[in-house]
Design brief:
Number of strands: 19
Order of helices and strands: EHEHHHEEEEEHEEHEHHHEEEEEEEEEHH
Radius of gyration: 22 Å
Distance between the termini: 52 Å
Number of helices: 11
Shape: globular
């Protein structure tokens, strides 16, 4: 006999158990513990993908300041670090260490009555009357509201790499690289493509493992403490952004605010030290024109200035593009939604069209601004969605 399907009734169904889904779950619990929230994910562990990514890329600290995290209480992480005597990162603006952040989230989760995520991948979504029906192989969830917090996206593969990307193991996207299980890389030559913090972390780890690295980026290194200017986290820039009614102008402002990948000054200093030792070559304002595997199990890159670079591996730190269409079961609800540069034009409450479906993460950029995908955006999105659903709007620190 086949497995018995179980139907689950919920007030709110959240797809995605990462920081954004956690922020929403904690806020609903804070507002009204009687609200039944069911979270769907590929794992029954909160933040599993988040933790795996930080482990794979050996990222020791977050980039966001210590006041940004999934808890409704802004100063909770700072209080936790002091109470538990965690080491400080020692970096400007005091971002928390990865260890401290994960320990804090575990304590918050364990202290909260929120349920563990349910292992289920949505296969179809439909709306009937006042109900959203989310169907998976294992169960069907009937909910009044649906929140997409799983960050649907597509990996960005440069045109020159597409032909051989799936055919050759010498070239990998950062989403596939597992540095935690890679030890000695002595005498290996690695080309890291990209100019953001992921590229820098890949470069640093490869260098620490003994590799020689060519960091290739199509423009000069952009040095910023954060992804965006701190003014985008408050009224300094957001007042005018929210006042802009033209969707195309809004998205243009958001893209200009992020202005591609960047690295903080402390990371630049680290890379410069390696460059002075001759183990790192930073090739700024250089694009790869073509690439091909060679007969000796290496990869040959030809740059736009016709210079050739021969390496053992190519690591693409070229990022991802927010793409709700990547979530196939959501596509029927996107036909009437306006998209600008890949971003959906949502309501201010992050509602997607006329149905009781909301989005979080980078998909909320139109409504929230350029930091929608960051930890700051997780708590802001949670507050807007929860206020729309419950009518309760919490002020800072959840008071």
């Amino acid at each position: 006999m086949g497995k018995t399907r179980r139907d689950v009734n919920a007030d709110v169904c959240i797809v995605g158990a990462g920081p954004h889904g956690l922020a929403a779950s904690l806020l609903f619990e804070r507002i009204d513990p009687s609200i039944r929230v069911v979270v769907l994910d590929q794992s029954n562990e909160w933040l599993k993908s988040w933790k795996d990514q930080f482990k794979r890329l050996e990222i020791p600290t977050l980039r966001s300041p210590i006041v940004h995290h999934p808890s409704p209480d802004s100063f909770a992480l700072d209080d936790f670090v002091k109470r538990e005597d965690f080491s400080l990162s020692g970096l400007p603006y005091n971002p928390p260490t990865t260890e401290a952040f994960e320990a804090f989230c575990s304590e918050v989760i364990n202290a909260s009555p929120i349920d563990d995520p349910v292992v289920a991948i949505p296969r179809s979504i439909r709306c009937e009357d006042d109900c959203v029906i989310i169907d998976s192989h294992e169960k069907t969830i009937y909910a009044r509201y649906l929140i997409i917090a799983s960050n649907p996206q597509q990996t960005i593969i440069p045109r020159w790499a597409k032909r051989t990307y799936h055919q050759n193991s010498l070239i990998q996207h950062s989403s596939e690289i597992d540095l935690a299980n890679t030890n000695d890389m002595a005498d290996q030559r690695i080309a890291v493509i990209g100019g953001g913090l992921t590229a820098a972390h890949l470069t640093r780890s490869a260098l620490d493992k003994g590799a020689l690295v060519d960091l290739i980026l199509r423009r000069p290194l952009q040095i910023r403490n954060f992804d965006t200017d701190p003014g985008w986290l408050g009224p300094k820039y957001l007042t005018n952004y929210y006042a802009e009614s033209d969707a195309h102008k809004r998205i243009k402002l958001a893209r200009e605010a992020r202005n591609g990948g960047s690295i903080p000054p402390w990371m630049r200093d680290y890379l410069v030290d390696y460059e002075s030792n001759g183990n790192l070559i930073i090739r700024e304002s250089k694009e790869v024109a073509s690439a091909k595997p060679t007969s000796c199990a290496r990869y040959e890159l030809t740059l736009c200035n016709e210079k050739q670079v021969n390496v053992d591996q190519v690591w693409l730190a070229t990022g991802t593009q927010s793409d709700l269409y990547a979530m196939e079961c959501l596509r029927p609800f996107l036909h009437g939604v306006t998209f600008v540069d890949g971003f959906p034009v949502t309501s201010n409450s992050l509602r997607l069209g006329q149905n009781p479906i909301y989005v979080m993460g980078r998909s909320a950029t139109f409504a929230l601004g350029p930091s929608a995908g960051n930890l700051w955006g997780a708590t802001r999105a949670a507050k807007r969605i929860a206020a729309d659903i419950t009518g309760v709007e919490l002020i800072a620190n959840g008071s």
